[in-house]
Amino acid sequence: MDGINNIDHKTLTEGQEIPNIPISMTNGSKITKLTVESDGDYIHLSPNEDNTGLVGYALKKTDGRKEAVVTATYTNTEGQSRQIKTKFTYEVNASPVTDLSLEISNDKQTVIEGTKFKDMVVTASEGATVTVDPAKLPHGITYNEKTKTLSGIGEYEGRYIIPVMATKDDKSVTKLVDLTVTPGEFSVPTANYTFTAGNEIAPITLKIPANATVSSVGGTLPRGLSWSADRKTITGTPTQVGTFQVYGYVNRTTSGGTNQSTYGYVNITVKSVPLNFSIPDNTKNSKSFR
Q1: Residue 270 contacts residue 241 (beta carbons within 8 Å)
Q2: Distances (CA, A) of 150 to 57, 134, 143, 244
Q3: pLDDT tens for each residue of 203-225
């Protein structure tokens, strides 16, 4: 009988990222899915990219030790899919920084896909620098550094944790925005790109949910560009000038088991290489004749 290797007690700090917690099977079986349940919303954990561990954030201080339950789906030596559970304990200590303030309005919200979130305005101590990592922003959400405001829509189903950090005088404090998007009408926003012929493009990746697949593509790409094997990314060097539209047929299954499909369109404009003409100044070499 295979089992999950023991997970030691975790001592965490409020508002801080939780380093990877390794999860493995006693017989070395491959884990195909990980889920975590914990009471009280003290922590948020999700599987890493290859299901070999859990990553996340400590959301708020606990009053003593708490317990989390990990469920692992794995493939045994006979090739069969099995599930097993284990528990580990944790506690979250209060943030050690008390003289640096950081507040975020509407920091916990739930909306249906396609619905706008209430603006989330960040207020910090005078002179503090506020930092939001763009890589942590889900599709549909942007951060305005000037107004210190997070805004946008819930584009795709899921729960999203966005860390916001304030720094001043070598001290820092982090608080988390906790956004949940529930399934609604499935749509992929149209993307527009402009390039210059002869220049290699930065890869265009369809902005679709992580669990989505692209079953087919259509339209006409400019010469020099091509789709990746999974039909999610366009790369290459365009050599044909003009306006082009392509699309992917995107499929997903919601958390409730509903299968949904839609088209994701990409508009590409390729401009010709700018021509720079210069007229030589021959006056310096000219002579006067009388």
Answers
A1: yes
A2: 19, 11, 4, 33
A3: 999 999 988 999 999 999 999 99
